[in-house]
Amino acid sequence: MTRAEFMARLKRGLVGMPTSAAADILSDYEIHFEDGKAAGRSEAEVAEALGDPNRLARELKAEAGIRRWNQEQNPSAAAGAVFAVLGLGAIDILILLPILMSVVGILFAFYMAALGLFIGGGGIMIAGPFAGFPGGALAAILGGLGLMAAATALAALTTILTIWLVNGLVWFARLHYRLLKPALDAQATDTAGDRS
Fold it and tell me: Cα–Cα distances in Å, from 66 out to 33, 54, 164?
C-alpha cells in the first residue's frame, strides 16, 4: 500500500472526529512515513508496519470518545463514547446492543417519570391553594414541593446510574479490546504473511 492510499483510508476512517484532532493524527502518521523514508524504508514497508488504516481509525476514534467522556461527563460525551466503542467492533454487538438498548429505555423512562413528577408537583403547588386542595393551601404547597423534591432526587439517581453505565461500558470495552488485541495483531500478521 502506498503512502497516499494509507493516508486516504485513514482520513476516511477519521470522519466524524473534530477536524483539529483528525489533522493532528494525520500529521503524526505523515511523520511516520517521513521517518521511514529517512531510514531507507519503502512506503509499503512503513504502511505494513503501521497496520490497517481502517482499524487504526476505529481505535483512534474510540480512544478520543473515551477521553472526551473522561474529561466532560455530559450526555453528548457519553453518546460519543458509547458509539465510538461500538464502532470499534471489540464488543459483540449482537449480545450487548439489545441489553444496552433495554437499559437505556429504562433510564429514559425514569427521566420522563421525574419530569412528570416535577411538572405535577409544580401544578399542585401553584393551583392547589386555589382549587380547594384537601388540607388547605399549606398542604398543597408542601405536597407540591415534596413531589418536586422527589422528582429531583429521581433524576439525580438516574443520572448517577447513567454515568455508571457509561463508565462500565467503557471499562468493558477497554478490557475486551485488550484481550482481543493480541489475536487481532496475530490475524493481521498472518494476513500480511499470506499476501507476501
Answer: 27, 19, 14
Q: Does the residue 153 lie in any domain?
A: yes
Phi, psi values for residue 15, rounded to 5°: -60, 135
Note down the domain range covering 131: 90-196
- Is pTM beyond 0.85? Reply is no
Residue 108 to residue 115: CA distance in whole angstroms: 11
Please indicate, yes or no, if residue 38 is contained in any of the structural domains: no
Q: Which cell numbers in the block locate residue 154?
A: 429521581
CA distances from 120 to 124, 141, 145, 146, 153 (A): 6, 12, 10, 11, 15
Cell, residue 30: 505523515
The answer to whether position 148 is within a domain reads yes
Indicate whether 31 belongs to any domain. no
Chain segment 41-61, per-residue pLDDT in tens: 888 888 888 888 887 787 777
Element (H, E) at 138: helix 137-195
For the chain, the residue count is 196
